[in-house]
Amino acid sequence: MPNTIVLAKNYVPLLDEVYQRESVTSDLTGDPAMARAGANAKEIVYPQIAVTGLGDYSRNSGYTQGTVDFKWVSTEYNYDRGAKLSVDAMDNQETYNLAFGMAGAEMMRTKVAPEADAFTFATLAGIEGISKGEAKTFADAAAFMNALLEAKNTMDNDEVPEDGRILYATPVLLNGLMMLDTYKSKEILSHFTIKKPVPQSRFYTAINLLDGKSAGEEAGHYKKAEEAKEINFMIIHKPAVIKHDKHVVSNVIPASANPNADADIVKYRKYGIVDIYQNKKAGIYLSHKE
User: Fold this and answer.
1) What is the rounded CA–CA span in Å between residue 176 and residue 182?
2) Which of 23, 44, 22 lies closest to 242, judged by CA?
3) Which of 62, 118, 199, 281 shows the smallest number of beta carbons within 10 Å?
4) pLDDT score of 19
5) Is 99 exposed, middle or buried (0-12, 13-18, 19+ CB in 10 A)?
6) pLDDT single digits (tens) 142-184
7) Contact 203/170 with Cβ under 8 angstroms?
8) Alpha carbon of 29 to those of 138, 239, 243: distances in Å?
9) What 8-state DSSP symbol labels residue 281?
10) Which helix (H) or strand (E) holds 174?
11) How far apart, in whole angstroms, are the C-alpha atoms of residue 281 and residue 159?
12) How confident is the model at residue 255 (pLDDT cuts 50, 70, 90)?
């Protein structure tokens, strides 16, 4: 898409920028050292282990022989996105250097962070075998509190460790629960290591990543998939998630080094993965609307 830049008026020194919060899923990013390179550049492998249980002890033959099943499981990187922003040197000068100076920061805040969150939630929500509550729209904060208790019971019964559980919920639900200010509401919230409100625009069970090239997708970014549901809340046990960036590039090319045009360039690319350990699917609990 061509740049749309309005030249500055010398009596308007203020910047009108979009309200947008930073990424809410950065807490899920893990240590890439826990995974190893796979057979090809697009693949990583991680260790998976299982052992047999106890058997009867015999005073004649001794211990029952157990087994250890240790293997390396592979998964592929599933996120490769980027953009290049170009601002003509004169356009930048005539906007008091704001056009280029703010372009990179605006892209990170209003595009990169929201898309990273939306991709993370949609990817985890789409994994077969995770725990799910009944699809519903909660009438009030009390109904949300009951749903959280049900989710906690499910994860407790599945023996998911309580330490490391992160609660992601829409602002309406989370703020409503905090406003109850009762012993029960405080007690249920105390069982989560982190509580994060998630804007509904980032909270869907599926999204479409726009390619930035095709007709109707020139603006890039993402949109809610046609079959997607709005998410009420997700409880994520951090150790269940594989989330890291293998390659992130963010650099600036000044107009003087641009061989193609008298324009400053900012480039950004992120290549990474969002997935789940196959033995830890119980560490994800999803509640979405009908």
Assistant:
1) 12
2) 44
3) 62
4) 58
5) buried
6) 999 999 999 999 999 999 999 999 999 999 999 999 999 889 9
7) yes
8) 30, 10, 5
9) G
10) helix 171-180
11) 12
12) confident
Count of positions (residues) in the chain: 290
Tokens 């992601």 locate to 168
Tokens of 40: 């090809």
For residues 261 and 265, give the distance between their C-alpha atoms in angstroms, rounded to a whole number: 10
Q: For the residues 181-194, what does the mean pLDDT come to?
A: 92
Full DSSP string of 92-136:
HHHTTTHHHHHHHHHHIIIIIHHHHHHHHHHHHHTSTT-EEPPP-
Between CA 218 and CA 224 the distance in angstroms is: 16
The mean pLDDT value of the chain amounts to 87
CA distance 284 to 276: 9
Q: Looking at residue 135, what is its pLDDT? A: 97
Rg (CA), the chain: 24
Residue 134: exposure state from Cβ atoms within 10 A (0-12, 13-18, ≥19): exposed
Tokens 């190893």 identify what position?
36
| pLDDT tens, position by position, 2-51 | 565 444 334 344 444 555 678 999 999 887 666 666 656 688 888 888 89
3-state secondary structure of 250: strand
Band of pLDDT at residue 273, cut at 50, 70 and 90: very high
Sign of CA dihedral 198, 18, 245, 214: positive
Q: Are 205 and 120 in contact (CB under 8 A)?
A: no
